[in-house]
């Protein structure tokens, strides 16, 4: 057995249409992504040409309807995220931000003209989007944002900054959230708009095969048509984050599965004291515990996909999935590194790369602490973080 999810025969319960999606994305990852990931991770590079390849694959905004989007099920989208993150979290991050944040914000809250202008190009990978919510001093508390948009005749003038923005410096358009006299509103800011600059952040130990940037807005003048007309209040950007978190809870399973497969293959061939280390009780205990954990995480993901496809999923349920699955995946990746011994610190083997990436995944789209408090509020009715 190489796939630990076969321990409980989980692949057999995936419907044929979604299984086809998963297999297609898995083959793309095997043929196109895995051969280059060591080089891209070490060099801190995300190849921009992958955007059009993801578009051709059909994974950009794949869970949205119309405007060049495939409109697949939540389960199909989740399984695509799983296979992308099994290759590297950076690939799933790109697809999540493009489809579940930038495109979803336009699809859900944009005008017909905004949808027609941006969504077909973004679905094809011809235009890249980013999502500007987090600020240097306001991560878990986005309601405290300082970025401000002020009316000036028919225009808006935008000032402020955003931090830790995936795709930021390669994006053709940014969805930017700002405080206005009418509350928090969303704006579409095309790259190259005077006063708008994006700077890539380097020296990262995590998500190295992904672009992370700071966005700065210095008197950026936008026409009235840049406003997302249906987005009012903080609930709008938070609804986009829930879309991205759903992909994350599947993606984390992919990183965990890939780590176990790597450790299992190594343990069967690495010989110590005259036999493969897979034959030692302590190694088998590690492998057994990790296999049970990843199967439980996958069953949780499948259950939440069912709720989402039925339109009954709640925010705290997504929080439970993101909290559990990322936490378990990070523990699994770290444990798999111990199975690999000293070899596990090199880029030849995936688990430590996955563990490094998952440190970011644990923090973005809501930290583990915040998701814990979301669940605490759901259980007690008392919001502990306010």
List the keywords.
386 residues; Butyryl-Coa Dehydrogenase, subunit A, domain 1; 3 domains
CATH class of the largest domain: Mainly Alpha
Mean of residue pLDDT?
Answer: 97
CATH architecture of the largest domain: Up-down Bundle
**Main sheet characteristics:** 4 strands, antiparallel
Overall shape: it is globular
Provide the low-confidence segments as ranges.
none
Kindly report the oligomeric state of this protein: single chain
- Total number of distinct structural domains: 3
Residue fraction in strands: 15-25%
Classification by helices and strands: alpha+beta
Number of strands: 11
User: Span between N and C termini?
Assistant: 48 Å
- Strands of the biggest beta sheet: in what spatial order? 4-5-9-8
| Structural Rg | 21 Å
- Sketch the topology as an H/E string, one letter per element: HHEEHHHEEEEEEEHEEHHHH
What is the CATH homologous superfamily assignment of the largest domain? Butyryl-CoA Dehydrogenase, subunit A, domain 3
Protein name: Acyl-CoA dehydrogenase family protein
Family: Belongs to the acyl-CoA dehydrogenase family.
Organism: Amycolatopsis minnesotensis
Pfam families: Acyl-CoA_dh_1 (PF00441), Acyl-CoA_dh_M (PF02770), Acyl-CoA_dh_N (PF02771)
């Amino acid at each position: 057995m190489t796939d630990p999810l076969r321990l409980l025969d989980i692949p057999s319960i995936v419907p044929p249409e979604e299984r086809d999606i998963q297999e297609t994305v898995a083959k793309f990852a095997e043929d196109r992504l895995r051969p280059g990931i060591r080089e891209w991770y070490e060099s801190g590079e995300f190849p921009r040409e992958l955007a059009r390849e993801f578009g051709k694959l059909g994974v950009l905004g794949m869970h949205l309807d119309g405007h060049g989007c495939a409109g697949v099920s939540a389960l199909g989208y989740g399984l695509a995220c799983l296979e992308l993150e099994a290759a590297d979290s950076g690939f799933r991050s790109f697809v999540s931000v493009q489809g579940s944040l930038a495109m979803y914000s336009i699809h859900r809250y944009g005008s017909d003209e905004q949808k027609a202008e941006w969504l077909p190009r973004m679905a094809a990978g011809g235009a890249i989007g980013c999502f500007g919510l987090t600020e240097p001093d306001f991560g878990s508390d986005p309601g405290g944002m300082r970025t401000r948009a002020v009316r000036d005749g028919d225009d808006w003038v935008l000032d402020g900054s955003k931090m830790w923005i995936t795709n930021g410096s390669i994006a053709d358009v940014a969805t930017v959230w700002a405080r206005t006299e009418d509350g928090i509103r969303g704006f579409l800011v095309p790259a190259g708009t005077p006063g708008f600059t994006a700077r890539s952040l380097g020296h990262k130990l995590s998500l190295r095969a992904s672009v992370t940037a700071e966005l700065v807005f210095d008197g950026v003048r936008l026409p009235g048509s840049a406003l997302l007309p249906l987005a009012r209040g903080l609930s709008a950007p938070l609804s986009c984050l829930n879309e991205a978190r759903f992909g994350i809870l599947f993606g984390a399973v992919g990183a965990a599965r890939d780590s176990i497969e790597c450790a299992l293959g190594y343990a069967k061939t690495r010989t110590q004291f005259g036999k493969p280390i897979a034959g030692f009780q302590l190694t088998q205990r590690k492998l057994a515990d990790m296999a049970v954990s990843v199967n439980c995480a996958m069953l949780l993901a499948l259950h939440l996909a069912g709720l989402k496809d039925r339109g009954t999923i709640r925010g705290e349920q997504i929080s439970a999935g993101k909290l559990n699955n990322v936490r378990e995946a990070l523990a699994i990746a770290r444990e798999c590194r111990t199975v690999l011994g000293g070899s596990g610190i090199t880029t030849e083997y995936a688990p430590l790369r996955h563990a490094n990436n998952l440190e970011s995944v644990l923090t973005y789209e809501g930290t583990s602490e915040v998701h814990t408090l979301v669940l605490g509020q759901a259980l007690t009715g008392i919001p502990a973080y306010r």
